[in-house]
Design goal:
Chain lengths: 419, 424
C-alpha cells in the first residue's frame, strides 16, 4: 500500500517535471519555428490594421493586385524598418552611421540579458521570480545613493555602485526565499506584493529632499545624474551610446554558465529544481537553497539595475526600470534558462526595443513587437502547440525512475528464465 | 482543534492551527495606534462629514480633536485585541467579524490622524472606494472561479485590460453601453479559453501562460490604440458612462445611502453577482462539483465528474466576469480607454483572492480595502498628510504580505490549484 503510493507520487512528479523540462530544453528547430510564427502573426496584425491596405481591400475584387501590393508594402516597410533600426541602417551615408543600430541593440540587450539570467536561475531551481522589477527598484535606491551622494575615484566608484546594487537586490530577493522557506508563502504572490512595496519606497526616496531628490528639485521624483566617476563609460566613441554595461552582461553570462553548469552550488540548485524531495533525501537543505537561489536570482536583476542607474541621462526617475523585470521573464523562457540561450534571446528582444522608433517612422506602431514577443514565447512554452502546427514528432516519454530500475535489473533474471 | 492539511496546492500551508500570531499582530497595531494616533497625535480638530444632502435621517457631523479620537479608537482596538487573545489561548480561531471590526476601527483612527485640522468627506470616500474597488472585486471573482476548479489565473490583468478596451471601443462604435458591456465579457471569456485550453489540454505551466497572456494583451491593446484608436478618438473611444440610478429608499440611508445605492449599472451587477457566486459555490450541486475538481480531481473523476470540462467552463466564465470588471473601469467609471490603464489591478485581484480565502464575500471586502487605499492616496495628496503618500499606498500590499505569510490566520487554497490533471 505504502509502496504503491510512493510510485504514484513519483509518476506524478515526473509528468510535472517533464512539462517543465520540455519548456526548458527546447530544440533549436522548435525555437526557430516559434520565432517564425511569431513574426508571421505580427505581419498579419500589421496588414489587418493598416489604413492603406484597408483602403485597397475595399476594391479587392476590382483590382486584387493593389490589395496584395499594399499588404506586401506594409510588411516589408514594417520589418524593413525594424532591420534598419536594430541591425544595419542601409540608408546611412557612411559605414560608421550604418552600424549604429546594432550597437543600440546591444545597449538595450545588456540589462535584459542580466535580468533574464536571474529569472532563468529561478526557473532552474523551480522558483518563479516575477519580482525582478521590485528587486531592481530596491537596488536602484542603493545605486542612486552611491552614484549621486558619495565621492569616490573613477572605476572604484562604479564598482562600489555595482556591488551595492547586487547586495541590495540580493537582500530583497532573499526575503522572498525566506518567506517561502519559513511560511510556505508562494513566491509569485510575495514577489508581486514586494514589487509594489519597492517601487513605492523607491519613489519616496526620489521624492524626498535630502535622500535622493535632485539638488533644488521639488515635487517631481527625480535624482541628480550619476557622478562622472560612477557613470559607466562608453565603449567606443561618443557617437555610439553603447557602454560598459555590455561587458558586464557578457561577464554575467559566463559567470552564470560557470555557476549553473560547473559549480557545486549550481549543482545543488539544479538538483532542488529537478526533484526537491530527492534533493532533501540526499541531504541538501532545500529551504536554505530556496533562500540562496532567490537571492542569487535577484542579484542578477541587481546588475541590470546598476546598468540602468549608472547610465541614466539627466537623472534617475521612478520609471528607470523600464519594465526590464517583466521583459526578462520572456527572455529567460525563450532562452531556455541556459546562459547562451538567454544571451541570444536578450539580443533578439534588445533588437525589438532598438528597432521600435524606426517602425514608428514608417507608420507601424512598434507595440506590435510586444505582440510578436509574447507569441514567440507562448509557442516556446507550449511545445504541443508548435508541434501540432508543424507536425513535428512527439519526443520519447520519460518513464518514472522506478520503472527504469525495474526494467534494468529484471532483464538478466528474465533472460535466465528464458534459457 | 489542530487541523492538519495536506500540502500540495499552490497556496497551501503545511499545518494550520489556532495560534497567537493574529492577536500579536493586532496588539502591535493597537499599540502603534495608541502611541502615534492617540498620545502623540495632533490636537487639532478633525471634522467627519457624514450626512449627505438628500439623506432621510440626518446624523450630525462629528467634530473631535484628532488625539482624543485616536485614544478612543485605540481603546476599542485594545479591547478587540484582548478578545482575540482570549480566543487564541482557548485554542480557537479568531472570528472574522472581529478582525473586520478591528480593521474598520483602525481605518477610522488612521483617517482622524491624517486629516487632523481638515475635513473627512465620508460619503465621498465610501462611494469612490466602491467604484475603484469594482474591477478588483470582479477580477477577484474571476480568480475565484478559476482557482476553485484548480487553474491558477495570473491573466486576470489581461482579462481586465481586454474588458476595458473592448467595452470602450464597442460601446463607442455601437453607441450602446450595454452592447459594449456584453462584448467586453465575451472578449475576456475568449481570452480565458486560451488559458483554459493551454492549461487543461496541453498541460502548459499555468503561471507561465498567464504571464504571457498579460504581455500579449498589453501588446495588442497598445498596438490597436496607437495604430487605430488614437487616430479617431471621438468615434472609437468616447463611450460615456452608465447613468447613476438612485435606488428608492436605500439611496436615502444615512452614511452609506448615496455612496452605495446611487451608482451605475456595473455596481448593481456586482451587488448581484457576488452573493450569487457565493450561493452557487457553497449551496448548489454545481458548486460542490467545481470545488471537488479543485480539491481532488482524481476523486471527482472517480465519481463521474468530467474534470477537464468543468475546469474549462469555470475558467471561461471566470474570464467573462473579469471582463465585466474591465468594463467597470471604462464605461463604469472614467469613460475612455487609456494605454495599460489597469495598472496592475489584476495582480492585486490575485492577491485579494488569497487575502479573502477564495470566498466571494471576503474577497470583496479585501478588494474594498485596496479600493480604499487608492482613494485614500488621491484624497491624502490634497490635504498634506502627516506621513508620505508612498507609505499609505504601501499598506495594502504589506497587509497582503502578512496575510500570505500566514501571520493573520489560516490561508489554504484549493488543494489542486495550479496542478494539471492528466487522466490515465
Amino acid at each position: 500500500m505504502n509502496n504503491k503510493k510512493e510510485v504514484a507520487v513519483d509518476a506524478e512528479q515526473s509528468t510535472a517535471n517533464q512539462v517543465l523540462r520540455e519548456i526548458l530544453t527546447g530544440s533549436p528547430v522548435r525555437t526557430l519555428l516559434s520565432i517564425l510564427v511569431g513574426f508571421l502573426v505580427g505581419a498579419i496584425f500589421m496588414v489587418a490594421f493598416n489604413p492603406e491596405v484597408l483602403n485597397a481591400m475595399s476594391y479587392i475584387f476590382g483590382r486584387p493586385a493593389d490589395a496584395f501590393a499594399a499588404m506586401g508594402k506594409t510588411i516589408s516597410d514594417g520589418y524593413g524598418a525594424l532591420f534598419r533600426g536594430a541591425i544595419y541602417n542601409t540608408q546611412a551615408s557612411d559605414f560608421a552611421t550604418a552600424i549604429r543600430p546594432i550597437t543600440e541593440t546591444l545597449r538595450f540587450a545588456a540589462p535584459m540579458i542580466m535580468a533574464g539570467l536571474g529569472i532563468g536561475l529561478g526557473f532552474r531551481v523551480g522558483l518563479f521570480n516575477i519580482g525582478a522589477v521590485g528587486q531592481m527598484a530596491f537596488a536602484l535606491i542603493g545605486v542612486t545613493y552611491v552614484s549621486t551622494r558619495i565621492e569616490l575615484p573613477f572605476i572604484i566608484h562604479s564598482l562600489v555602485a555595482i556591488i551595492v546594487a547586487v547586495v541590495f537586490a540580493g537582500a530583497w530577493g532573499g526575503i522572498v526565499g525566506y518567506l517561502k522557506a519559513k511560511t510556505g508563502a508562494h513566491e509569485v504572490i510575495v514577489t508581486i506584493m514586494l514589487n509594489y512595496v519597492a517601487l513605492n519606497l523607491f519613489t519616496f526616496f526620489l521624492r524626498t529632499p535630502g535622500l535622493l531628490l535632485e539638488e533644488g528639485g521639488a515635487g517631481t521624483p527625480k535624482s541628480d545624474p550619476p557622478a562622472e566617476t560612477a557613470a559607466l563609460p562608453n565603449l567606443f566613441t561618443d557617437e555610439y551610446r553603447l557602454h560598459w554595461g555590455l561587458v558586464l552582461a557578457v561577464a554575467a553570462t559566463f559567470f552564470y554558465w560557470w555557476l549553473m553548469e560547473r559549480s557545486t552550488i549550481g549543482y545543488r540548485f539544479r538538483m532542488v529544481g529537478f526533484n526537491s524531495s530527492a534533493a532533501k533525501a540526499s541531504g541538501i537543505r532545500v529551504e536554505r537553497t530556496f533562500v540562496w537561489a532567490m537571492a542569487a536570482s535577484a542579484a542578477f536583476a541587481g546588475l541590470a539595475a546598476a546598468n540602468q542607474g549608472l547610465t541614466s541621462v539627466g537623472g534617475v526617475t521612478p520609471s528607470i526600470h523600464a519594465n526590464i523585470g517583466f521583459d526578462a521573464i520572456t527572455v529567460a523562457l525563450l532562452g531556455g534558462s541556459r546562459a547562451g540561450g538567454i544571451f541570444l534571446a536578450g539580443l533578439l528582444f534588445g533588437a525589438f526595443k532598438a528597432g521600435g522608433p524606426a517602425m514608428q517612422v514608417v507608420g507601424v506602431a512598434p507595440e506590435i513587437l510586444n505582440v510578436v514577443q509574447a507569441l514567440i514565447v507562448m509557442f516556446i512554452a507550449a511545445p504541443p502547440l508548435i508541434r501540432a502546427l508543424f507536425r513535428l514528432p512527439q519526443p520519447p516519454k520519460r518513464k518514472p525512475i522506478s520503472e527504469w530500475v525495474a526494467a534494468k535489473f529484471s532483464k538478466p533474471a528474465n533472460k535466465k528464465v528464458a534459457k | 482543534m489542530s487541523r492538519i492539511e495536506v500540502t500540495s496546492g499552490m497556496f497551501s500551508q503545511v499545518e494550520r492551527k489556532p495560534s497567537l500570531k493574529a492577536p500579536i499582530v493586532m496588539s502591535f497595531v493597537a499599540i502603534v495606534s495608541l502611541v502615534f494616533f492617540g498620545i502623540l497625535g495632533p490636537t487639532s480638530v478633525v471634522h467627519f462629514q457624514i450626512t449627505e444632502a438628500n439623506a432621510l435621517v440626518s446624523i450630525p457631523d462629528l467634530n473631535l480633536p484628532s488625539n482624543s479620537l485616536g485614544i478612543w479608537a485605540s481603546v476599542v482596538l485594545l479591547l478587540l485585541t484582548a478578545a482575540s487573545f482570549w480566543f487564541g489561548i482557548a485554542r480557537k480561531f479568531v472570528p472574522r467579524v472581529l478582525v473586520i471590526v478591528f480593521g474598520l476601527t483602525a481605518i477610522v483612527a488612521l483617517l482622524g490622524w491624517i486629516a487632523a485640522g481638515a475635513d473627512v468627506p465620508v460619503g465621498f470616500l465610501l462611494g469612490n472606494t466602491l467604484v475603484l474597488a469594482l474591477p478588483i472585486i470582479l477580477g477577484g471573482m474571476g480568480g475565484i472561479m478559476s482557482e476553485r476548479v484548480g487553474v491558477v489565473n495570473i491573466a486576470i490583468e489581461g482579462q481586465l485590460l481586454t474588458g476595458a478596451f473592448v467595452a470602450s471601443v464597442v460601446g463607442s462604435i455601437t453607441n450602446n453601453l450595454w452592447v459594449g458591456l456584453i462584448a467586453a465579457m465575451i472578449a475576456a471569456a475568449l481570452l480565458s479559453t486560451v488559458l483554459a485550453s493551454l492549461a487543461i489540454k496541453y498541460l502548459v505551466d499555468q503561471i507561465i501562460i498567464g504571464v504571457l497572456l498579460n504581455v500579449l494583451v498589453i501588446g495588442v491593446t497598445n498596438f490597436l490604440y496607437s495604430q487605430v484608436i488614437s487616430q479617431d478618438n471621438a468615434n472609437l473611444n468616447f463611450p460615456g458612462t452608465f447613468d447613476r440610478i438612485p435606488i428608492p429608499l436605500l439611496s436615502q440611508l444615512p452614511v452609506i445611502g448615496d455612496a452605495f445605492f446611487n451608482q451605475g449599472a456595473t455596481v448593481y451587477l456586482t451587488f448581484l453577482l457576488v452573493p450569487a457566486l457565493w450561493f452557487i459555490l457553497f449551496r448548489t450541486k454545481l458548486g460542490l462539483r467545481a470545488r471537488a475538481v479543485g480539491e481532488h480531481p482524481l476523486a471527482a473523476d472517480t465519481v463521474g465528474i468530467n474534470v477537464a470540462k468543468t475546469r474549462f467552463w469555470w475558467v471561461t466564465l471566470g474570464g467573462a466576469v473579469a471582463g465585466l470588471g474591465g468594463a467597470a473601469i471604462t464605461i463604469g467609471n472614467v469613460g475612455a480607454f487609456g494605454r495599460e490603464m489597469t495598472g496592475g489591478q489584476g495582480f492585486i485581484a490575485l492577491a485579494v483572492v488569497i487575502l479573502g480565502r477564495w470566498q466571494p464575500i471576503y474577497v470583496s471586502i479585501s478588494a474594498l480595502l485596496f479600493g480604499f487605499a487608492i482613494i485614500l492616496r488621491i484624497w491624502a495628496n490634497q490635504i498634506n498628510p502627516v506621513i508620505p503618500v508612498d507609505f499609505i499606498t504601501m499598506v495594502p500590499y504589506l497587509v497582503t504580505l502578512i496575510a500570505v505569510a500566514g501571520f493573520a490566520g489560516r490561508v489554504r487554497g484549493p488543494a489542486a490549484s495550479g496542478k494539471p490533471y492528466e487522466k490515465n
